[in-house]
Design goal:
The protein is an all-alpha fold. The radius of gyration is 17 Å and the shape is globular. A two-stranded parallel sheet has the order 1-2. It has one domain. It is about 50% helix and about 0% strand. It contains six helices and two strands, in the order ααααααββ. Helix 1 packs across helix 2, helix 3 packs across helix 5 and helix 3 packs across helix 6.
């Protein structure tokens, strides 16, 4: 995975390659603080992997000052939930080797994902954004009703449908 360090970017080198390295490093660093604020006990290797995921061409995400803190927290939480599901559970094995449908695999690995998330952000009180971000990934888009808000999850895991515009919480 592309992971430049500050030593690889020379501020005096005007080449396009150096500019790209500098921009990539800046985007990674813009994500570091918010991720560490949301997940204060995230291990360093996981943080570095998540920083790469955030700025990958597929995600291309940095903290958006034009959006609310809750919106940004929701986006980071979705990225972290997807990473934990793939890196810390048997989700991929269930889907690929056992042919388990992905939402069934999500439900089977949900407790493992929740344990990792709580270890990385151990607040005494519940964390509404974290819990809602985790729970919404367990609900199939077709089980949602029109006008859904991915963060409006009640106790029965029922959320509203996205109206066919894709699922912003489906990050894997």
């Amino acid at each position: 995975m592309f992971n430049p360090t500050p030593a690889t970017a020379n501020p005096e080198d005007p080449s396009p390659v150096n500019k790209a390295l500098t921009q990539h490093h800046r985007r990674r660093e813009w994500n570091r603080g918010p991720l560490q604020d949301l997940f204060p006990r995230i291990p360093a290797p996981a943080l570095e992997t998540l920083l790469d995921i955030c700025v990958s061409p597929r995600k291309n995400f940095v903290y958006n000052l034009s959006e609310s803190r809750r919106w940004n927290a929701r986006r980071y939480t979705g990225i972290v939930v997807a990473h934990v599901r793939h890196a810390y559970t048997e989700y991929d094995r269930l889907v690929r080797e056992e042919g388990v449908e992905r939402f069934a695999a999500r439900r089977r690995t949900a407790a493992q994902v929740w344990r990792v998330l709580r270890a990385w952000c151990p607040w005494d009180e519940s964390n509404e954004v974290l819990e809602a971000g985790w729970r919404v990934t367990l609900v199939r888009p077709e089980d949602r009703e029109p006008g859904w808000d991915p963060m409006d999850v009640d106790d029965d895991d029922e959320v509203e449908s996205d109206g066919g515009n894709g699922d912003p919480m489906d990050l894997d």
